Amino acid sequence: MACDLLLPSEIHRTPPMTFFVLFAAVTLSFLLWSAAFTGIAARVSSMWLRCVLAVLAVVVPACALFPWLVTCFELAFRAKLHVNWFGPMLTVFISSLVGGLCILRGGLTSPDTDAAPLRAQRWPVISLFLAFLLSKLVVIGILFTLDSRASARIDAMKRESADLMASVLIPEVSDLSNAAPFYKAAYQIIDADSEIGTVFDKLETIDPTAASVEDTLARHHQTLLLVQDGAKQDVYREVRDWTRPSFDLLLPELQSLRSLSKLVYLSARNKAAKDDIAGALDDVWMLYRIRQHAASEPFLVSGLVGAAIDRFALNAFTEVLPHAEENDLSLLQRVECRELITMTPSFKRHLFAEEALGIMTYANFCTGSFAMSDLDTDFENRLTYSYSYPLIYRVFLFDRDYELYRSTMHSYQQLLVISEPYDNVIRQTKAIEEKLTQSKTGILAGLLTPSLSGVFKAGVRSNALHKAAAVALATTLYRIRTGDIPATLTDLLSDELPVIPLDPYTQDAPMRLTVLDDTLVIYSVGPDGKDNGGPPAVESDRTEKNDDVGLWLHFKK
After folding, report:
1. pLDDT value at position 411?
2. Where are the alpha helices (DSSP H) in 440-496?
3. Of 89, 151, 174, 339, whose CB count within 10 A is highest?
């Protein structure tokens, strides 16, 4: 199914007639100005004063309009915005200038002879000034109305952003029930360890029973106990003002959670190598809980970090499985193992949080509390008269820009819940991104809307890994029950694996299974749709073009 852009119902564009009246009133006001000063110039006898007044009649409107014209020009030809208002502004400028010159020329000439009075001497100067003031009031009134309308919407946007963020937040809890303090205390210990980086750099390839690993785990016994206490908590929540999402919110704890997960992963590998299945599975479950906690934070980067930790959990799980024997069956049948392989990472909440962040940024940008330089300094530098930009943006650009942002985010959200082959999903994400790039209806939509194709790629990859983990568990149960390694996926059909899982990258072919000596590879064909025999081994140089996605089971010799 095609993913059409969904236009948010709360967005209402300003009627075009309103802008027509505005530009007409601006033009009329400057023509009345020219007429009034021409009338005054015609009544003075001093030629030099008449020249000064004549210049004022034409130059003042031009000078007043010039900064706006330049700004609209730069929006049109330097920023290349499709909605730029350069045409209407140029029309007003030329009309005011040419019209003013025509008024000046006509008013400072005699109707019949040189001796006759100048035409403008009979013009009602006071009435012209009053008409000028009235037209200016009309212009100011329209601008004020449009600006007030935008301001009212800004207040509603702030409320919507806060409500949307609140809808995806987990509840507040006390420190005793919050995993955050435990994780923070554990990370402080890791952060002070200058030697641990050497082990972490070889996390997947290092011998889990090497002396350096044993020494690291011994030094961080207390650290692991703190992580364990944190993983037991139902809620992970950092102290932030979530009612005002902004780019000022820093997320340093995400890096700490990655570091903690590396330590737990190392512990799981060490225990598996020593046939401590119960202890290793406890560590795997701990990794799963850290993943859940990381992803519970609403922002997209939190979800992506959670997905990265999820891969640690699944890799550790497949290192444990080859060591499992008959007396470990009860451990493998625990609800925790089922939850591990069935609960794939989801980014639905995170897209809503990203939308909430974007809405608040629009609101802050319109009020001036968030500047263009906070997003794209270069863009602000393109504007010669940047002081005029905030008002121009609120009145003339905000509607279309905001509409594009909301519709784009809604398209991504819609695409995230549909079930289509990987190629179709990526094609649609690229189409959304291209439409966003080509629209050029404003500056914020493109800057605030992240490229989300990576999110969909991460989601499909996680789905493939979880399906591989389900097959790996069924393979292990089959091995324990029969003493053999299955040759095909069909051999695994049982209560443990009721159906052969489909490859999420194709959705029309099953996952693959290959036996290589003492190794079993369970995999998907990956993004390119080609079977390359399984993903590259951890210890390989990975130089070959192989994007298969899966897991390795290395059986004990």
Report:
1. 87
2. 444-448, 453-482
3. 89
Instruction: Tell how far CA 131 is from the center of its chain.
Output: 50
pLDDT single digits (tens) 120-138: 899 999 999 999 999 999 9
pLDDT band at 385 (very low <50, low <70, confident <90, very high): low
Residue 326 CA to residue 248 CA, distance in Å, equals 53
What's the rounded mean pLDDT across residues 174-192? Answer: 90
The set of residues, in sequence order, having a beta carbon less than 8 Å from that of 18 and lying 6+ positions away, is 142, 146
The verdict on pTM exceeding 0.85 is no
Helix (H, G, I), strand (E, B) or coil at 242: coil
Taking the C-alpha atoms of residue 359 and residue 374, their distance in angstroms, rounded to an integer, is 16
Helices 86-107 and 16-43: angle between axes, nearest 10 degrees: 20
Mean pLDDT over 357-366 rounds to 85
Give the three-class secondary structure for 285: helix
Closest-CA residue to 92 (of 18, 30, 17): 30
The runs of H, that is alpha helices, within 297-439 are 300-320, 329-332, 335-342, 348-367, 377-381, 389-392, 398-417, 422-439
Count of beta carbons in the 10 Å neighbourhood of residue 179:
24
The two beta strands, 519-524 and 512-516, are: antiparallel
Q: Where are the domains of the chain?
A: 16-155
